[in-house]
Amino acid sequence: MHEHATPHTVPPVKTLQGTVAIPGDKSISHRSIMLGSLATGITRITNFLRGEDNFATMNAFRNMGVMIEDSGSVVTVHGVGVHGLQEPGDVLDCGNSGTTIRLMTGLLSGQSFFSVLTGDQYLRKRPMKRVTEPLRRMGATIAGRGNGTLAPLAVSGGRLSGITFQSPIASAQVKSALMLAGLYADGATTISEPTLSRDHSERMFRFFGADVETADTTVTVRAGRELHGQEIVVPGDISSAAFFLVAGLIVPGAELLIRNVGINPTRTGVLDILQQMGGDIVLQDQREVSGEPVADLLVRHSRLKGIEIGGDVVPRAIDEFPAISVAAALAEGTTVIKDAHELRVKETDRIAAMAQNLRAIGSGTIEESEDGMSITGVETLRGGSVASFGDHRIAMSLAIAACASRNGVTIDDVSCVSTSFPGFFELLAGVSRV
Ligand code: S3P
């Protein structure tokens, strides 16, 4: 829990009606600051996510000499070029953001200066060996707690050599860390993953003019090209839209139009899963924005049924399992989630957190397994008191469960919601009919 916990009670609603504009995609917002900084010329970013995680990335680059202006509607990055970053004068604080610390560790490995990365109490517990180990193989000098497996991490940048790395996990953070290091390595840096994780880095590297080749689940980056500043329009974050999708499905009579949502195929597992559960979700006005596919999503209350979830869809829905578990808690029959061990090392252990919290608000039988859980649905949830464990997505999942509960849900601390979705509670209240 944060030092100053902010408890919040979400009451049950009669129904949900209206239109929701989802804030910008977190992953794309991080990468737009990073590549904009490494480009020559100016990058203008609209619909940038003004969440704490993205401000951590922004501040890190400001601390390395990049001028970044934020007018409130447009973020302007004055790129310094691939070799233009300066040694930061202080420790870089990544806050709660795994994407910031892991991608920056890769980028900083190739600089000609020293830097230290740290984060909040949750981030300092998350595994870093998955990036430090392959980066060391590229020649990086990284020190850190537990022999470089936990932050704080100290990076003494230097010469890197490209490697061919077979990643044991489908992780966009691991892939992107090595891709960024690859911009500084001698020779080619090739990363293969067991199934394709989100490919925003590949798309954005290409958009900025980097030398990147993709084939199947393999990406190769070569150094040497100059990157050029771009105009970027960030699509709405499907991981944020997921809360309104599930809310629209579980609340009787609900109908919501969720506008401007990124539907990159490496991110749409949540749509496949909810539709397979019987969810009525219609994609409208499909279009492309800054190299990313976008649509409006129309969602209506639906009778859901339990399904089995595992395999390749898991990385395509990895951040949506807290919300999906709420849908499962109100579906007919049992939903089984497997192959999702990564959920145990997110902002918190999301399997344990959702199992405990769903039980606390009157769910049916829940069984945890090492790599997932099974959830048997009930007609309605009672409501009650729950714990966010400082995890934004746990807090928001329980807020939507509250909408469909009899008595409402009190969440012990919702301050974490601002890491990815500032304005979430106001948007939810705006479409709630009580
Ligand atoms: C992200 C990758 C995913 C995801 C996270 C954002 C990214 O993490 O869970 O919220 O922007 O690259 P992993 O790479 O650990 O799967």
Index terms:
13 helices; alpha/beta; 30% helix; 434 residues; UDP-n-acetylglucosamine1-carboxyvinyl-transferase, Chain; 5-stranded mixed sheet; aromatic amino acid biosynthesis; globular; 2 domains; 4-stranded mixed sheet; 26 strands; cytoplasm; EPSP_synthase; binds shikimate-3-phosphate; EC 2.5.1.19
Q: If classified by CATH, what would the architecture of the largest domain be?
A: Alpha-beta prism
Number of helices: 13
What is the residue-averaged pLDDT? 97
Contiguous low-pLDDT stretches (5 residues minimum) are none
- The CATH topology of the largest domain turns out to be UDP-n-acetylglucosamine1-carboxyvinyl-transferase, Chain
Largest sheet, strands/sense/barrel: 5 strands, mixed
Instruction: Say what oligomer this is.
Output: single chain
| Alpha carbon gyration radius | 21 Å
Domain Enolpyruvate transferase: 12-427
Subunit structure: Monomer.
Active site: 319 (proton acceptor)
GO molecular function, one term: 3-phosphoshikimate 1-carboxyvinyltransferase activity
